[in-house]
Amino acid sequence: MVCTVPTAIAVTSSDLVLPPLDRQTPPAVVQPQDTLEGTLVSMHALVEQHGYVIALYSPSAQREAGRRLHTVRSVLESDRIALVGIDLPPLGIALLAQQLRQLSACDFSPGVLASSVRLLAHYIYSGALLGSVAKLDRVPVSLKSHAKSWMPGAQFAVLANPRPQLVRVGEGELTGPEFGTRLFVASGQAPSDWVTATLAPAWKAQGVANVPLPDGSARWWGTGKLVEFAAGLTDVAVLYQLVSSVRRERCHWCGLELIGDRCGFCAAPLTDLPPPTATSTAPASRTAVRALPRGGTP
Q: From start to end residue, where is composition biased (Low complexity) (predicted)?
């Protein structure tokens, strides 16, 4: 892995910035959302300093922020700004931003970094422990679960990504990752004992880190009585291997490198998809990750 001038990784608020895992992890950039002028000035400075910027936001939970970012890119007329909307819960977006920060210090081109977002997001297990699902609209909720949410002391374990799942605590288990992860836990108005004492061992988490609850979590999950959690890869060597295992292509529109079927900067689709090979598909990468030891060393 060769270190280069890092592509800037931007988020829309400071509560989506997780502490760096080591001294090599570049800081995230928080895009000011108070005024359009402030966002313009900040984004222009980032492009001038870093050359390329990848900005993450939630298209459903941060509509206004997304619109402002698109306006800024149009005004600047820059093809060096990738606006990546990804519908993860807030803590999941924070973890994804941290992974991109780690990879930005490696020898990946900006195009590969931007187009790796969907691949990386597939390996993030993002959910919450909720005291009520009455206002939850991000994950399918049955009428039975709605009724049980009104019972005193009821708790529900919910997984939003990579596959929606909802179980009442004590009546089922959440499907966890089949590879080693670090679990990040952010507590709201609810104790986190179940997450740290039950979920973490069941998922064979390699470590647990307590972090502040993002401001948008209560709105995303429909209740302030929650503990949000997100499990994902944090070893930069494993992340590097995962992204490197996918075949690279050249965008026919802007000329940047990409992985997958769409350019992360101009959003142009890959016109001629290659036939499936051992190194060109996400499932192959999943196999590679499963084959890694839980110690996290490739």
A: 278-291
CB 59 within 8 A of CB 117: no
pTM higher than the cut 0.85: yes
Lowest mean pLDDT among 11-25, 241-255, 276-290: 276-290
State pLDDT tens for residues 117-155: 999 999 999 999 998 888 898 887 755 554 455 455 678
d(CA 138, CA 76): 34
CA separation for the pair 163, 146 (Å, rounded): 20
Q: Cβ(42)–Cβ(75) under 8 Å? A: no
Name residues whose C-beta falls within 8 Å of residue 109's C-beta, 6 or more positions apart in sequence.
256, 257
What CATH number does the domain located at 125-232 have? Answer: 3.30.1180.10
Taking CB atoms within 8 Å and a gap of at least 24, the contacts of 199-204 are 199/129, 199/157, 199/174, 199/229, 202/173, 202/174, 202/176, 203/125, 203/176, 203/177, 203/231, 204/176, 204/180, 204/294
Q: Would you call 275 helix, strand, or coil by DSSP?
A: coil
Rounded Cα distance, 157 and 137, in Å? 15
The pLDDT score that the predictor gives to residue 93 is 97
Phi and psi dihedrals of 265, rounded to 5?
A: -100, -50
Question: Under 8 Å CB-to-CB from 155, ≥6 apart: which residues?
Answer: 129, 130, 131, 168, 169, 190, 194
- The strand pairing partners of 9, in sequence order, are 54
Element (H or E) spanning 220, and its range?
helix 217-221
The DSSP symbol for 251 reads -
Token pair 């890694």 is at which residue?
Answer: 292
